[in-house]
Amino acid sequence: MKRLIAVVAVVLVVGSLPSWAFRAVSTVSSGDVIADIIGQVQEHHLREHICQLQSREGGEYCNEQGSRWSCDGTAIDRALDYARQYFENLSLKTQLDPYSLSCRPGLSHNIQAELPGTESSQIVLLVAHLDSYATGVSKASPAPGADDDASGSAAVLEAARILSQYKFKHTIRFVLFTGEEQWMVGSSAYARKLASAGAQVLGVFNMDMIGYDGDDNGLFEMWVRPGESEGLADLIVRTIETYSIVLAPEVLNDPRRGGDHESFWRRGYPALMIIEDTEFGETEDFNPCYHTLCDVLGMLNLSYARRIAQAVIGAAAQLAEPIQ
After folding, report:
1. Structural domains of the chain ordered from first start
2. Which run of H or of E encompasses 113?
3. What is the pLDDT of residues 245-299, one digit of tens each?
4. Tens digit of pLDDT for each residue in 27-47?
5. Which residue stretches of the chain are H helix?
6. Tens of pLDDT along 71-88?
7. How deeply is 13 buried, as exposed, middle or buried, from its count of CB atoms within 10 A (0-12, 13-18, 19+)?
8. Which residues fall within 8 angstroms of residue 200, CB to CB, at 6 or more apart?
9. Is-contact 126 260, C-beta < 8 A?
10. Percent of the chain scored above 70 by pLDDT?
């Protein structure tokens, strides 16, 4: 996540859903597939992904000395390879998405895995940023980034594991961006290519920092753009209510940006940020280890991360319309 200097965040009263969201919500009452999907989200899978992503290669298991700094080719390429192998092991069509990043010679890459829809090429995107940052980071120095954003990346990998077992009417893409800490460079390039190709995007669920809940109150935020993405937030809220997920969602109008969702807003696509409690909402419980060396697994509440992942994956599955 990119930290902002100031944001005026307004709590929204979410209105009626657009037509596509009504269709998605109607799948809730038609069977138990969404409950099955939600029930498969596991803490130990999230923990394993975060362990791998925060660790330095060759160190003791689940060490805290790794880095995924996008300007360090060796570090970020190792993380990309981890995700690539994971997606491919799920038999998902996987590809690297190239773009240029000024601080690194040659090409940088995002990574995408796709679950094709059975009836439609319209796309539902589950995304997070794979890269990390710690103040003063340099080549080969630690930037473990367990919360920012190994937590969101782990949820995307977990979504791929679960949803790849099902068929959906619409295409689902699982995308991990790099270059986010250089101000959303990777996602900007990706969204630009989608728009150039005329891609139809039903919704983008961006999970950026979903693991820290210092006061254990279950509060998390969804940042929306009025008129474009309230329906996505409402779908998550309805999922939480329908499946009794113990969370306290807060929907905020975020006019000042600060995450990969903004790259999609600029292209007119419905997108939202899913993030733990920050200083921009009604309360403040922001991770004190943000962009520091203490952003490690031991600081996180994996039960909280699991519940957020359940809500988001369940909502995305409804939007993609599972085949009963």
Report:
1. 10-320 (3.40.630.10)
2. strand 107-115
3. 999 999 998 756 689 999 999 999 999 999 999 988 888 899 999 999 999 999 9
4. 344 459 999 999 999 999 999
5. 19-25, 33-39, 43-54, 73-89, 152-163, 185-196, 230-242, 261-265, 302-320
6. 999 999 999 999 999 999
7. exposed
8. 121, 122, 123
9. no
10. 90
Percent of the chain with pLDDT over 90: 85
SS3 95: strand
Contacts of 171 (CB under 8 A, 6+ apart): 114, 115, 116, 117, 120, 121, 122, 123, 124, 320
Nearest by Cα to 126 from 201, 70, 75, 189: 201
Cα–Cα nearest to 117, from 225, 199, 180, 228: 199
Strands 93-100 and 248-253: unpaired
